[in-house]
Specification:
This protein has about 160 residues and is mostly helical. It is about 70% helix and about 0% strand. It is built from five helices and no strands. Helix 2 packs antiparallel against helix 3, helix 2 packs antiparallel against helix 4 and helix 4 runs antiparallel to helix 5. The longest helix is centred in the last third of the chain and has 32 residues. The radius of gyration is 20 Å and the shape is globular.
Length: about 160
């Protein structure tokens, strides 16, 4: 009987711990926005990477956007880890975005990431990774905006 109640208690504890993991994600450390930013970065990368056939050839700027997003993910994961965040946890993205206007959607997400990550960081060990992540986000934003300009220029030439 004791064995059965011990197993039940352990199973209950495991379920409660698993259910509370998302809530704890924002309580570890002092910077609760890394996990949201990482989810938004992954979604932005998906937006850039999943082209429609009518979008034409992949531009050099789009490749820069993807490279910079992936570099930002690496730096921000490290900062989140140093901040005590469970980096294996996947936060839901801030918003579901349609595939139309995917570069615009990526820019909106990158702006949210910038806003989330640019908050004050108390842990001096995390600051360099936070700053490098922000620098990668800025380069990705500029490249995405340039890619949109290239698409517009190309579309105008076709008309």
């Amino acid at each position: 009987m004791k064995k059965k109640s011990l197993v039940t208690a352990l199973a209950t504890f495991t379920l409660v711990a698993a259910a509370s993991l998302p809530a704890l994600a924002d309580e570890y450390g002092r910077h609760p926005f890394y996990l949201h930013a990482l989810s938004d970065l992954r979604t932005a990368a998906w937006q850039v990477d999943h082209r429609r056939p009518e979008d034409g050839q992949v531009s050099r700027d789009e490749m820069v956007v993807l490279d910079e997003i992936h570099a930002a993910i690496g730096d921000l994961q490290h900062a989140a880890w140093l901040d005590g965040k469970p980096v294996e946890w996947r936060e839901p993205t801030d918003a579901w975005l349609p595939r139309e206007g995917r570069l615009h959607a990526a820019i909106d997400l990158l702006r949210k990431v910038r806003s989330d990550v640019a908050r004050e960081e108390d842990d001096p060990r995390s600051r360099p990774f936070q700053q490098r992540g922000l620098a990668h986000v800025d380069v990705a934003l500029n490249a995405a905006q340039h890619a949109i300009g290239d698409v517009r220029h190309h579309d105008m030439r076709r008309e």
